[in-house]
Amino acid sequence: MTRSHCYCFSGIIISLLIHTLASPPLHFCLPDQRDALLEFKDEFPIDESNPIAWNNTSTDCCFWKGITCNDRSGQVISLNLFDTLLNDIFSLFRLQYLRHLNLSYSYLQGEIPSSLGNLSRLTLVDLSHNDLVGDIPASIGNLKRLRHVNLGDNTLIGVIPSSLGNLNQLRYLSQVPSSIGNLNKLQVMSLGQNNLNGTIPIPFTNLTKLYHISLRSNNFTSTLPSDMSGFHSLKHFDVSNNSFLGPFPKSLFSIPSLQTVSLEENQFTGPVEFANTSFSKLEDLFLSSNKFDGLIPESISKFLNLQSLYLQNNNFTGQIPRSVSKLANLYVLDLSNNMLEGEVPSCLWRLTTVTLSRNFFSSFENPLQETLIQALDLNSNSFRGPFPRWICKTKGLSFLDLSNNLFNGSIPPCLRNSIDSLTDLILRNNSFSGTLPDIFANATELRSFDVSRSQLEGKLPKSLINCKALQLVNVESNRIKDVFPSWLGSLPSLHVLILRSNEFYGPLYHLNVSVGFQRLRVIDISHNDFTGTLPPHWFSNWREMTKTREEDDPYMADIINDSVFYRNTMVMVIKGVETSFERIQQDFRAIDFSGNMIYGEIPESLCYLKELHLLNFLNIIISGNGFTRGIPQSLANLTKLETLDLSCNKLSGQIPQSLGELSSLSYMNFSSNFLEGPVPRGTQFQRQSCSSFSNNPRLFGLEEICGKNHGSLPATQQPEEVLDSEEQLFNWVAAAIAYGPGLFCGLVIGHIFTSCYHKSWSKKTQSHHK
Fold first, then answer.
1. Distances (CA, A) of 397 to 334, 354, 415, 420
2. Quick one: 613 exposed, middle or buried, by C-beta within 10 A (0-12, 13-18, 19+)?
3. Mean pLDDT: which of 103-117, 449-463, 627-641 is highest?
């Protein structure tokens, strides 16, 4: 071999040696580490959908799912069993070299063992989204290297142990996402969404490196530390949804690095005052749902980077400070449900979302530049005058609510310029007059149209037929004079149709016109001048009345954007009481035909709605009409029927005994008919008022309902006389707000109908003959 060949061979050997020394050795999981993992695995419940392939016959355990080892020593340093069905974690404490432990979403139960504090090399612990209970062990304070801890979304109780103040490496105290991407960049501790209480320990103020603190959704009832300026690196502070007390934490706002503050849904009181700071990075401020009062401070203008400001549901008074105009980056402002007043400054119209509802504002400045508003909510104030025509120039407007004000005059046709992007047009309870403009040809996004309780007249705009997304039409309590809009029955998503208390007239049914309304859930056409008969099949296509479906939200609602969430409302007479629904439940089904001149037999197809056992409510109110013949036996198929009002008709025969088996039937009214025979003896019948059966002289079996002296009810008036009566009796009473799960109603205005209250049959008939 020549010298050159020797050199070449030696070079190859040296190169291989260097490469071998530079590359990590092929590590093998140490036996004690493997045994600890297998012991831990034996405690798993069997999960066929996500099995863990750990066993004695498999190769190096460092290649097992969820395991990471040290490249050189073979010690297990990371265990990631996110979303794995587990029982407990006790056998893990033999893995003394663990640095990362992620067992989130793993169905863990029981208490966090105090021996967790013996794993002294841990830098990350994620036990979030489990069913852990009990106290946070104080031994966690021994983990001096700990940078990230997530214990959120469990059911932990008790106070925060003061030993956590020893974790001076912590930089992020928060509720964090379950994803473990970029863990090496995070320094996290999460205590959010538990049942922790008590006070924030004083040693917490030693954690000066923290840049994110979140204790949201617990049961804290104390005050915040009086001086929080020591958190000089703090960027995000969230203590929302607790019961923190005391004054506004002024010192918090002296931290120049602060970007987000959320104090919402607590019990803070007093005025809002900001500390002096020469520079602030604050972008989002959430102070809603507290008891703050006084003026909105002019010093709000120092936060030049502010993008969103939420002050709703407090007790702020006075006017909107003019200094708000300096907040050039602000795009979301919510001041709803306070006691603010005066004029709304024009600078707000350059924002994208403005919510000023439930205050005392009386006027607003017209915009001085192009408006950018996408969602505008001015409901329940004291605005007056004509419809603000500058809204017609707004491009991209998706939500407009001017309800419950004093606006008057006509709804301008120029609104068609903004209608193409609107999803909700809510103008109810004003004094608008004139005709509804026919402006909906391009309103293909419109879902809610509510102009109820004004003084509008004329006909219903035919261009509404183009609104294929329309879910609610409410024109209640106006002077609209038109025939029944059967053409709306073709709309594929129409759920709620309310025509109540107008001047609609004519028959509901036409021989060659399809009934439609397959998706209809609620219809109220009461107190109009509808006439004619209904054929037996009239309700047969109303398929949505026969079933319910799974919905993401239990109530009819629209998510307009990240800041605006609108729930549809309506007013109906339920159990004889005019009731305001502040939200409409998705599975609510109601039919109200009362106070018209419909006559003939009750359509048999009404009883085809036999799937009503899936519903919470069905209210069939067809009183004050001229229905004749008997009450269909098949009404007993409506097993979830809660309210049945057949009063003031010409019904004859007996009340079907099978109705006594409807256990959900809590309100009924058969008064002023020609009914005869025994009253059903079901429990629900025995609980009714005696007046529910009055003016049916041939009914008997009422002793338990009306008393022993009322074997049958004397006929004080014959049904014809009741129908001819001009008397309209309204007893208005104030009632309370009720949010019970079965009621889902808001403000209830007692509008008690104690007799046949609509226009008399004879008067209506005469008016139609003229």
1. 17, 12, 11, 9
2. exposed
3. 449-463
Q: Which amino acid is at 220?
A: F
**No. of H helices and E strands in the chain?**
6, 52
* 3-class DSSP state of 440: coil
Check residue 512 and give its pLDDT.
Answer: 79
DSSP state of 345: P
Write the burial class of residue 512 (CB in 10 Å: 0-12 exposed, 13-18 middle, 19+ buried): exposed
Cα separation, 203 vs 277, in Å, equals 26
Backbone region of residue 510 per phi and psi (left: phi > 0; alpha: psi in -120 to 50; beta: other values): beta
Token look-up 């067992």 returns 103
CA dihedral 368, 369, 372, 376 (to 10 degrees): 10
Q: How many CA atoms lie within 13 A of 97 on its CB side?
A: 16
Average pLDDT over residues 175-179: 36
Burial of 468 (0-12, 13-18, 19+ CB in 10 A): middle
- State yes or no: pLDDT of 226 exceeds 90: no
Q: Is the pLDDT of residue 605 over 70?
A: yes
User: Which residues contact residue 534 at a Cβ distance below 8 angstroms, ignoring those fewer than 6 apart?
Assistant: 508, 509, 598, 600, 603
Most confident of 145-154, 471-480, 558-567, 670-679: 471-480
What are the CA-CA distances from residue 433 to residues 387, 426, 436, 529 (Å)?
Answer: 11, 15, 8, 21
Question: In angstroms, what CA-CA distances link 144 with 54, 117, 677?
Answer: 32, 10, 85
What letter would DSSP give residue 242?
S
DSSP 717: S
Contact 334, 311 (CB under 8 A): yes
Radius of gyration in angstroms for the set of CA atoms belonging to the chain, rounded to a whole number: 35
Q: In terms of residues, how long is the chain?
A: 770
Please give the Cα distance from 675 to 168 (Å, whole number). 83
Contact 113, 136 (CB under 8 A): no
Whether 691 and 716 have beta carbons less than 8 Å apart is answered as no
Strand order in the sheet with 597-600: 505-507, 529-532, 597-600, 626-627
Q: Tokens for 413?
A: 């046709």
- How far apart, in whole angstroms, are the C-alpha atoms of residue 737 and residue 662? 28
The backbone torsions φ and ψ at residue 36, rounded to the nearest 5 degrees and listed phi first, read -65, -40
Q: How far apart are CA 586 and CA 617, in angstroms?
A: 11
**Angle (CA) 295 296 300, round 5°:** 145
Pair type for strands 212-214 and 236-238: parallel
Residue carrying the six token digits 């879910």: 471
* Maximum pairwise Cα distance, the chain: 135
Residues whose CB is less than 8 angstroms from the CB of residue 644 and which lie 6 or more positions away in sequence, other chains included: 620, 635, 659, 665, 667, 668, 669
Give the Cβ contact number of residue 205 at 10 Å: 16
Secondary element (H or E) of residue 735: strand 731-737
Which tokens belong to 660? 């006594």
| Residue keyed to tokens 């909510």 | 377
Rounded Cα gap, residues 320 and 361, in angstroms: 10
Residues 6 or more apart in contact with residue 173 via CB below 8 angstroms: 188, 189, 190, 191, 207, 210, 212, 213, 214, 215
Strands (E) in 538-662, as ranges, are: 557-559, 565-567, 570-574, 577-581, 588-592, 597-600, 617-621, 626-627, 643-645, 652-653
**CB–CB of 266/248 below 8 Å?**
no
**Which amino acid is it at 695?**
N
CB 582 within 8 A of CB 747: yes
Contact 398, 377 (CB under 8 A): no
Q: What letter represents residue 660's amino acid? A: G
DSSP letter at 8? H
Return the residue matching tokens 């050159």: 4
Residue 335 token pair: 């001041």
In whole angstroms, what is the distance from residue 208 CA to residue 190 CA? 17
